[in-house]
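User: Please predict the structure of the protein below. I'd like the answer in structure-token form so I can feed it into my own downstream comparison script.

Assistant: Understood. Taking the following sequence of 241 residues as input:
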Amino acid sequence: MISNLGEWDWERLEHHLPISALESLVAIQPPKPEYGIDVPGWREKFWKGPDPDWVKVNVDTSVDAVGNRAVTGGFIRDDSGGWLTGFYRCVGRCSVLLAELWTIYDGLNHVWDAGFQRVAVEYDNKEAVCIINRMSLTLDRSVLVQSIWALMQRDWLVKVCHVLREENAAADKLAALGKGCGLNGSIFVVPPGAVASIVEHDQRRWMQWLLQWRGIPPSVARFHFAYLYYWFVVSSRCEMV
């Protein structure tokens, strides 16, 4: 969306963004290669759905500060933000970095076992994501890292991306809930109560953003929100019965 002169390409942007977004861009300088990687301060900090026909796996870890007992947790959502399945499990006692890598490994295994073929994994630990994406040589000879790479090379499309903590709140809560779990862990067909409210909020925020981006009037958007909330609550209760 940047012109050949290095400025915002307003003609193209007007076809894709609402007026409110364009007005925000006016006061923002476009990113420039000579300034390095740009991290815009106006980036909206909320969970965003995957591309159509993809699923998204958000993962996180919880490590006991006293005994280094580590728990991994994560779950899969579809492109509308709907919960598909989740997990948490204890991986024993290890360093924080190893726990972060175990989290990605468990997330990949969980989504592979669930049978999905187009997968985006999101995690808020930049160091672990850089290792997995071969942007860092740290632990590159580790058996765990090699196992993660082998998983990613299976017959599927998978990418591992870094996100902000605010975008990973539900996974953070799920991992925290698993502090007392055993080595076998647990699988969740529906989200635990403390996680469900965050998932519902994420879903409503994501659908709201999508509808506004597409220029759908607020009155119609409210109908969509009500329908999605009803569908999420009713389907979750049916799964529990």
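That's the full token string. Residues 34-42 have pLDDT under 50 and may be disordered.
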